[in-house]
Amino acid sequence: MNVLPIWGTMRMLESSCDPVFWTSFLENLYFKGVRHIHSSNEYESFAILTECLLILSKKGIVFSHIIKLAEPSFNESKFSAERLLSKIDFYNQMLPGKIETIQWMWRSEGLDNERIASFLKQQESLDAAFEKYNICCFPYSTNFADKAIELKNLNGLIIYWNKFETEYLESAINASKNNKVYEVLVDDGEAKTTSFSSIDMLSFCKRVPSLRGIIFTATTDEHLNEAIHFFKNI
What we know:
This protein has helices spanning 19-31, 46-57, 81-94, 112-121, 123-130, 142-148, 169-177, 198-203, 221-233; strands spanning 4-8, 36-39, 64-70, 99-105, 135-137, 156-160, 181-185, 211-216.
């Protein structure tokens, strides 16, 4: 099973706010074989992350990126290809390296059925805008996920998947039937307060069909080494 390890940055500041620490950690991450990072400018860690990545890029250490963005967002009434391009351009300017995948969300203030109705009205515009990019949907509901995977130029789904959040399995199966790839976001925060270890959480991902990558969190050398061992033997 060839699954891409993707290091998640959302919980960085829970361990340290020191750029020196994180520059060293990221360099270690790179040389251990993890070459993909998941980030968002919505995370408090983004400023430190970009600072560290710029320092490392001057040493020739450059990662590929999975970025999370919303279009439309809560204060926007409908999808805009121009805004999408502007948001992608922002990340291109901020992150050294290639933006490999866009984790895309459709946000809105209304109910899920209203969100889906608005999405369906703009399917053609979405497909046209997605054609040049590797876009994976991060859905707010299984119903939205099942509609999104019908888009011709949507590459797949990125979803939460762990022992506490399993509702998207059927959507994953549907995505695989449509030849869509699929990445999972393992939020192991719950593992800290239960009997489940981080490796338990990672191993649980083996149940997912058409799995391309796992977005995982590790903020200590011990946990990172455990994760690297898992990915080498999955």
